[in-house]
Write the structure tokens for this entry.
Amino acid sequence: MPKLLTEEQIDRFNTQGALAPVKVMESDEAFEFRKKFEALEEEIGAEAQSRFRIKAHLPFPWLTELIKNSNMLDAVEDLIGPDIIVWGSSFFTKKANDHRFVSWHQDSTYYGFDPAESVTAWIAFSDSTRETGCVRVIPGSHKGDAVMKHVETFDPDNLLARGQTIEGVDETEIVDLQLHAGEMSIHDNRTVHSSMPNPSNMPRIGYAVHLCGPHVKQTQFDGATGTLVRGTDNYGNWGQDIEAKGHMDPDCLAALDVAWQRYRDSMKAPYQQ
Ligand SMILES: O=C(O)CCC(=O)C(=O)O
């Protein structure tokens, strides 16, 4: 018996490799998250996504709480089972009238997981629609190879660190993962996805939580860490991430830098051969 999703939603996820929308919180609660996010950008005088990467929750109690949100975890449990590790999280934001985009790519090519089983819960702090440049997917693409050929463009307008791009994607059957603030989409790490610029007058603010089962192993580097947010870890593949004692906890900021450097270095691996 699923905890939150319907059988139809579970089937859709298994068929398409993605699912939206799923309600995580009320829109007024999402607005509180948006205000905290905007206050953070004001405080650091830069985009949060330029400074807090791959484990963005680490230095912030409010995000550390969000990665344990029970609605999000109930839905994820319906898809991947009762034992769940959050191994990372990332901001994906576009300002109003923002020409930046995300090219077609597949997360699993760069994650280096064995088995290649991980999902992203992409939570909208503001509406993410066709007009604001929502995430879109190629349905069924998660059934292909876990490592696909990408070219790395390093295009500064691409929100991806290396501008990693799958060329020649057939766009005839795109599914747009449109969300109101407070809803999430979930996509499989093999699913080919992208997003367009945001020509609207509203920012599109997303916070992506990366989750897997404890049986999944990071093969590209030693010492991978995460947070067991539900169930039991019977495998020991993941060390424990430290938790913030307060806003911008200095130990967590240092751990974040180490994690990002390790992830960046490991991202080179798929094309070293
Ligand atoms: O937010 C976007 O536009 C892209 C998100 C993405 O690539 C991801 O969550 O893996």
In short: The chain has seven helices and 15 strands. The chain has one domain: 7-271. Residues 7-271 form a domain with the Jelly Rolls fold (CATH 2.60.120.620). The longest strand covers residues 84-94.
